[in-house]
Design goal:
7-stranded antiparallel beta sheet, single chain
Length: about 140
């Protein structure tokens, strides 16, 4: 059983200039990796012209809706009642995007319906175990 959730979102790239730039992105969740969320950015918004894929904890995204969360490569924090800011830190620099909080809440609700909080360990390795059971591994 594949439980994959993809949700298109509109992000605003926050630059040092006073303006922001709207861009598409996708929030991705797969029950086979129940603790993680991915954010996929299309090639046209990257400096290298390649798609960018960031993986981080689902719990980090959830916590970041209420208060600043994260100390590593990905950080999330509320920005007023309707927006959420995500920071992506790499050796090349920092990218900041702003999302509609309602979009993030909707995505998280769908992911928690697929894999409820606290039950993630039951889903770890499930697909591999099924493949071994049916001789496909």
């Amino acid at each position: 059983m594949h439980r994959v959730i993809d949700q298109a979102v509109q992000v605003r790239l926050i630059a040092t200039a006073p303006s922001t730039h709207a861009a598409p992105a996708v929030l991705h969740y797969h029950a086979a990796d129940p603790l993680a969320v991915r954010m996929l950015f299309p090639p046209e918004i990257s400096l290298e012209g390649t798609g960018v894929d960031w993986a981080f904890a689902r719990e980090l995204l959830d916590e970041g809706l209420r208060r600043p969360a994260g100390r590593g490569d990905v950080r999330v924090r509320p920005s007023g009642p309707d927006r959420t800011v995500m920071e992506f830190h790499s050796d090349e620099g920092i990218a900041m995007v702003q999302l509609q909080t309602a979009d993030v809440r909707r995505f998280l609700a769908r992911s928690y319906r697929a894999v409820p909080a606290g039950s993630e360990s039951a889903f770890l390795g499930m697909e591999r175990d099924l493949a071994e059971l049916f001789g496909a591994a």
